[in-house]
Amino acid sequence: MSANDYISGWEALNIPTSNGYIADWHPQFYFNEKKELKKYPYNEILKDSGISKRYIPFLNKDEYTANYPRAIADLVYENNTRELQNCVYDFLDDDEAVELFKYSKIINKYKNIEDFMKYELTKLYFKEIKNA
Question: Where are the domains of the chain?
């Protein structure tokens, strides 16, 4: 196991943060011994930003895992945005929203995610346009 093979997306959004918060509230669905855990391959665009080795209580071991902004960025990168409506408001604090916006700007150079940025990161998106 290496950072080239890490937990992200909805799976990472169901892992509690160090302060005990959880973003998505479906850990039984994603961390079920009957279901294979989805892993994400290394992303050349975002590299290892937002990925760290963490203890995963459901697995009872350490795994390389994306933080919440990176987990959402990986979903956006994979064009898996259907269920992300209001994700910034629901899952992230202000600092994490800024981190996701940074990732989104990088992804937007390679894939058009302008609508995601406009509707999910509205304040940051229009603030940047105003200051451009």
Answer: 5-130
Q: Which amino acid is present at 131?
A: N
pTM for the full predicted model: 0.90
Instruction: State both tokens at 50.
Output: 């937002």
d(CA 45, CA 132): 23
Yes or no: say if 9 and 40 are a contact pair by the CB < 8 Å rule: yes
How far lies 36's CA from each of 7, 28, 107, in Å?
12, 13, 28
What tokens does 80 get?
């898996």
Q: How far apart are CA 21 and CA 87, in angstroms?
A: 15
| Residue-wise pLDDT tens digits, 101-126 | 999 999 999 998 999 999 999 999 99
Query: What does the alpha-carbon distance between residue 122 and residue 115 come to, in Å, rounded to a whole number?
Result: 10
Q: Which residue ranges of the chain lie beneath pLDDT 50?
A: 1
Q: Are residues 11 and 27 in contact, defined by beta-carbon separation less than 8 angstroms?
A: no
Residues 6+ apart with CB under 8 A from 83: none
- Judged by DSSP in three states, 22 sits in coil
